[in-house]
From TrEMBL:
CDD domains to which the protein is assigned, alphabetical: Peptidase_M90_mtfA
Gene Ontology cellular component annotations, sorted alphabetically: cytosol
Gene3D superfamilies, per the entry: Collagenase (Catalytic Domain), Glucose-regulated metallo-peptidase M90, N-terminal domain
Pfam families, per database record: Peptidase_M90
Protein name: Zinc-dependent peptidase
UniProt GO molecular function: aminopeptidase activity; metallopeptidase activity
Length: 272
């Protein structure tokens, strides 16, 4: 009798495992098709003006993405912050912009977003003279962890959303890291569909990254800025900010980079 019970339990678990992706897809479709709350529309108009610049079909798709994102990804207040719908919708709208074109899930490795009132302090190991490793305290506006967390400063989230053309958006930046980290680490090379596409991406990105580092050494970083020269992962994240917020300049000054990002995100924001 016990053996039969164990077998039935095993079969039930296998059935659930096989059915779970289908059930998740149905649940997400139901969420996307629900009416978008009027209060959330008002938040978008007030806090995320970029949404109004999207083509109508992408505005509609974005609202569906927001509804799924907020149903699945808890946003937790830290440092005494009480999270409101205004905060949740403002974050979700920006986090879902990179999902508008390509179907790549809803940041499958992300478990939660931790939201602080302002810049938060972290300790980072640095190499001191003499080979000694010391902790250095740094104040950050955002950070993305491979372990499934994104940390954000509400002050910076709000500022990034308020000006959709300044090329600085901490939410897009950190969620670009999430797309990069889906393979377990960030190196500026998010997974692409084919080996050929990956090879072209690597060649274009490396050439542009090397050129940027040369310009930074001469004190002339240009549109991309010196922070993008930190490493390839930051290069990709900064490019993603520019792609969504300053696409015309990025296409004009770095056409090959723009083409790679347009292929990755399956979007053409310079045409909006």
């Amino acid at each position: 009798m016990a053996l039969v019970f164990v077998l039935l339990l095993g079969l039930a678990l296998i059935a659930w495992w096989l059915a779970e992706p289908w059930l998740r897809s149905l649940r997400r479709a139901r969420l996307r098709n629900q009416p978008f709350p009027a209060a959330w529309r008002r938040i978008l108009r007030r806090r995320v003006p970029q949404v109004a610049t999207l083509p109508p079909d992408l505005q509609l798709r974005l609202k569906g993405l927001i509804q799924v994102f907020l149903a699945e990804k808890p946003i937790i207040g830290c440092g005494g912050l009480t999270v409101t719908d205004e905060m949740r919708v403002t974050i979700a709208a920006q986090a879902c912009l990179p999902l508008l074109g390509a179907t790549r899930g809803y940041y499958p490795a992300l478990r939660q977003v931790l939201l602080y009132p302002g810049a938060f302090v972290v300790n980072r190991p640095v190499n001191a003279p003499g080979g000694v490793v010391q902790d250095q305290r740094r104040a950050l506006a955002g950070e993305s962890w491979v372990q499934g967390q994104v940390l954000l400063s509400w002050e910076d989230v709000r500022a990034g959303a308020a000006d959709p053309r300044d090329g600085q958006n901490v939410v897009i930046h950190e969620f670009a890291h999430q797309l990069d980290q889906v393979k377990g680490h960030a190196n500026g090379a998010p997974p692409l569909a084919t080996a050929q596409a990956q090879a072209v991406w690597s060649r274009v990105m490396q050439n542009e990254f090397d050129a940027l580092q040369t310009r930074v050494a001469w004190g002339e970083p240009g549109l991309l800025g010196s922070y993008a020269a930190t490493d390839p992962a930051e290069f990709f994240a900064v490019l993603s900010e520019l792609f969504f917020e300053r696409p015309y300049e990025l296409r004009a000054q770095h056409a090959a980079l723009y083409a790679e990002l347009a292929n990755f995100y399956r979007l053409n924001p310079a045409a909006w």
